[in-house]
Specification:
The complex is a heterodimer of chains A (501) and B (166). Chain A has 22 helices and 2 strands. Chain A has 501 residues and is mostly helical. In chain A, helix 3 packs parallel to helix 14 and helix 4 packs antiparallel against helix 13. Chain B: InterPro entries: DUF1468 (IPR009936).
């Protein structure tokens, strides 16, 4: 492991890797600071820029963007009470009141430093859990892999925003889309109206359409918004570093929580920050200050949402199962480089996971420096007019889709999925299960059919292995528990409306 | 449906259309069911498996269609219950629908004319048109963003990444 880790660090001997790290961080801050744009869109938009680049250079840029975008959301949350990402909502609860008290600088400093610490601690956890997990996963057979993919999907559906039923419909749409193209076992064309579809739906244009182009239409809905005045950056000088040390307990606890929650597919940085915030409030000596300008609240939320970035990487690298929409997009980026995430990644392409570990650590000081140096500039980013962002995103989507294959077909696919994504979001159908199912669909089908072949057509392979049974039960629970919660909620509402019920 | 002005007469088109979510869910569900029916027919007609241990090319799609069908029917059922007032109602707001429709058409136009116009002219024209359709009226902003975007695409994609565009 040490040897591989050293080779991961040695990748930073290449100036291009540094350039990618800095560029990814800058774009990440930019995307994170603009309310409405999130890391998934950022990573999807960056993919076209990685065509032809070395996989290591590409992945460093993408990871830096993911981490920086999660942090970038905090800057606008603190300065203008407009969280750039949903993961920064809890940061705004205390960050903005601190700004109003003239302590914006202090809140920013704490948020940037605790974000960095959160990533640093969680990357350590990632190193010590992803490697053993991938070694364990090498023992998986096709039955276990099928069940694992189902767990990933069901957790994403169960934890999806909105209803579980719509999440399940979205998952079904994604799985159906994944079956388009030549059948991998028999070579039979399926649901392919044209020759271009024989290789299946091109992933990058679908990602660009669903995540980036659909956002263009939402930006048009916003129109030209009024400029928001940022709070002055007070409190830099009054802040003492001993105060930061006093937050070590809350930062460590939140980082661990964030990492664990980040591992769960579908949970993500937002849930991590809310839970860490609630735990910090419960364990604080001054819980009454939460919501009114508690520095502990800012630290808990930021350490957790950034730690969730490393958490989401664990199932991606070790099992090939994306833990969040952003890592699902990242799988697309790795696939176009010819790299298949999963347990074999550590033996076939060890430079990729170990460079990711190294980049998470090396990226911390770079991210903290860029964040602190440009805090004021990032706050102004939120004032870039919506129409300009819409035009830029649409332009990059267009050339990105074309450049992915050098033909017009991906451009049409991207445009169709952009409009479809907008319509689905209007009906509140979540997009994450579609992407995850599209990414995992082929793996699911292949392993389902392989499992049946190895068991001579008998379904017993799915209930004789304890691990498969445990995984399938988890999948069923992930679907059933939110549904039970929904029924209970309805019953309680009915009881409140009519006590005789 | 209702149409309300947001800016009190400043820009009459800047309103929103409110559609009951249940109606949209029922419509979406029916469209999904129609596509699923086609999907099932196609899957059913795929070649049968070579041996009894495999489910064949159509087996997994049929399973997917079965699960998705149940989920879609549940969504329609819940939407009908909500529409009949047995559950809480919700609306879907479509803000600035004319602007959104115009930009959606521009996006389609951008894709269709990309090969004919070439990357630079197409990007410049459509980025400017999208900005105007999205409500931007400052001509210098529109020109600046369009020219800047074209220059950016040329430097990054054509020069640095050697992408050959039409």
């Amino acid at each position: 492991m040490i040897e591989n880790l050293l080779s991961g660090f040695s990748a930073f001997g290449d100036p291009l890797v540094w350039l990618s790290l800095i560029f990814g961080s800058l774009v990440g801050y930019l995307i994170g600071a603009i309310p409405g744009l999130g890391p998934s869109l950022g990573v999807a938009l960056l993919i076209p820029f990685t065509y032809g680049l070395d996989p290591v250079v590409s992945i460093v840029g993408l990871v830096a963007l993911y981490a920086a975008a999660e942090y970038g959301g905090a800057i606008t949350a603190i300065l203008i009470n407009s969280p750039g990402t949903s993961a920064a909502v809890a940061t705004a609860w205390d960050g903005y009141p601190l700004s109003q008290q003239g302590k914006a600088g202090e809140a920013l400093l704490v948020s940037i430093v605790t974000s960095g610490i959160g990533i640093f601690i969680s990357a350590l956890f990632l190193l010590f859990t992803a490697v053993p997990l991938s070694e364990f996963a090498l023992r998986f057979g096709p039955g276990e892999y099928f069940a694992l993919a189902l767990v990933g999907l069901s957790l994403v559906v169960g934890l999806a925003e909105g209803s579980v039923v719509k999440g399940a419909v979205a998952m079904g749409i994604g799985l159906a889309l994944a079956t388009v193209g030549l059948d991998t076992q028999t070579g039979t064309p399926r649901f392919a109206a044209s020759v271009e579809l024989f290789e299946g739906l091109p992933l990058v244009p679908v990602l660009l359409g669903l995540y980036a182009l659909s956002e263009v239409l939402f930006l048009v809905e916003e129109g030209v918004t009024a400029k928001i005045k940022s709070a002055p950056l007070g409190g830099w000088r009054t802040w003492n570093w001993k105060g930061l040390w006093s937050l070590n307990g809350v930062v460590f606890r939140s980082s661990v929580l964030g990492y664990i929650i980040g591992i769960i597919p579908g949970a993500g940085a937002s849930i991590a920050s809310f839970i860490a915030y609630a735990v910090a409030k419960k364990t604080s000596k001054t819980p009454e200050r939460f919501g009114k300008g508690s520095i502990e609240g800012v630290a808990a939320s930021e350490a957790a949402n950034n730690a969730a970035v490393s958490g989401a990487m664990a199932p991606l690298l070790a099992l090939g199962i994306p833990g969040s929409p952003t890592t699902a997009v990242m799988i697309g980026a790795l696939m176009i480089q010819g790299i298949q995430p999963g347990p074999l990644l550590f033996s076939r392409n060890p430079e990729i996971p170990y460079t990711i570990f190294a980049s998470l650590w090396i990226g911390v000081p770079v991210m903290v420096f860029i964040g602190l140096a440009g805090a004021r500039a990032w706050a102004h980013v939120a004032n870039i007019p919506g129409p300009a962002i819409a035009a830029i995103v649409a332009g990059i989507c267009l050339v990105g889709a074309y450049a992915s294959e050098g033909t017009m077909f991906p451009v049409y696919v991207m445009t169709a999925f952009g409009i479809l994504g907008y319509l689905l979001r209007k009906v509140r159908v979540p997009l994450a299960p579609i992407i995850l199912a599209l990414v995992l669909g082929e793996m699911m089908e292949t392993n389902f059919r392989r499992a049946l072949i190895t068991s001579h057509g008998s379904l017993e392979i799915f209930y004789t292995s304890p691990l498969t049974v445990a995984l399938l039960l988890t999948a069923i629970l992930a679907f059933a528990l939110p549904a039970v919660g929904f029924i209970r909620k309805r019953r309680r509402a009915a009881m409140a409306a009519d006590p005789s019920v | 449906m209702e149409n309300e002005a947001l800016n009190k007469g400043e820009e009459p088109v800047q309103g929103y259309v409110r559609i009951p979510l249940s109606i949209l869910e029922i419509a979406t569900g029916l469209i999904v069911l129609a596509i699923l029916s086609w999907y099932v027919v196609e899957a059913y007609h795929l070649p049968k498996p070579f041996n009894s241990t495999d489910v064949g090319a159509g087996g997994f799609p049929l399973l997917v269609a079965f699960g998705t069908g149940i989920a879609t029917l549940s969504m329609i059922g819940l939407a009908v219950a909500r529409h009949m007032g047995k559950m809480g109602k919700a609306d879907s707001r479509w803000r600035r629908p004319l602007f959104v429709l115009t930009v959606a058409l521009l996006l389609v136009g951008q894709a269709v004319t990309f090969e004919t116009l070439g990357v630079y002219l197409c990007t410049a024209l459509f980025s400017a048109a999208i900005m105007v359709a999205a409500g931007e009226r400052r001509i210098l902003h529109v020109l600046g963003v369009s020219i800047g975007l074209v220059a950016f695409i040329y430097v990054v994609f054509a020069l640095a990444l050697n992408v050959v565009f039409p």
